[in-house]
Amino acid sequence: MKQVFEILEKDSRTTPEEIATMTGIPVAEVEDIINKAERERAIVKYKTILDWRKLGEAEVLALIEVRIQPQMDVGFDALAERVYRFPQVRSAYLVSGGYDLALVVQGKTMHDVADFVAEKLAPLQGVQGTVTHFLLKRYKEDGEILVSGEEDKRLPITM
Questions:
Q1: Is the pLDDT of residue 133 over 90?
Q2: What are the structural domain ranges in the chain?
Q3: Is 127 helix (H, G, I), strand (E, B) or coil?
Q4: CA dist., res. 9 & res. 108, Å (int)
Q5: What's the longest Cα–Cα distance across the chain?
Q6: What is the fold, at CATH topology level, of the domain defined by 60-137?
Q7: Mean pLDDT, all residues of the chain
Q8: What DSSP character marks residue 155?
């Protein structure tokens, strides 16, 4: 069963028939495995990774560290939910270290992201501080290398 998920994780367009051929699991069983995982939200979403720059569309991404005050009986979850419900927030994680939340935020321009932080995020009750890091270039995302035509410049190991 794990094989089915590993194949889908690498390429979500792989058909049940192809998975059956690759794993030796009958097609009907592969379909049942996938359908059950979708119903139970073990498969949360099928995703396409786009390089918007190559498509001529502007996109600004920022990694924002947020320090928040945990609330009685709910800890970080209630405020985290308020934050991750903003449409600008693509990803939200509870993290260890000097900050509590790590957010990936998207905007059309750097000013859009800055306005989001200044007008929506920072004023929330319980937000104690933020640090914004603008992502200048994506090299790899979700295991996929996004830069093309560049050879590996590392020297080979010889003995």
A1: yes
A2: 2-39, 60-137
A3: strand
A4: 29
A5: 59
A6: Alpha-Beta Plaits (3.30.70)
A7: 91
A8: P
| pLDDT for the residue 60 | 93
Distance CA 27, CA 16 (A): 6
Distance CA 123, CA 121 (A): 6
Percent of the chain exceeding pLDDT 90 equals: 70
Sign of CA dihedral 89, 137, 5, 13: positive
Give the span between the Cα atoms of 24 and 27, in whole angstroms: 9
> In degrees rounded to 5, what are phi and psi of residue 135?
-80, 115
Q: Which of 58, 136, 28 has its CA nearest to residue 16?
A: 28
The alpha carbon torsion through 98, 74, 120, 85 (nearest 10 deg) reads 110
Contact present, 121 and 83 (Cβ < 8 Å): yes
Q: Above 70 in pLDDT, residue 158?
A: no
63 in Cβ contact with 135 (< 8 Å):
yes
For residue range 13-32, list pLDDT tens digits in order. 999 999 999 999 999 999 99
Amino acid in position 152:
D
Q: Give me the pLDDT at residue 157, please.
A: 67
The answer to whether residue 82 scores a pLDDT higher than 60 is: yes
User: What gap in Å lies between CA 88 and CA 60, rounded to an integer?
Assistant: 11
The tokens of 85 are what?
Answer: 């419900």
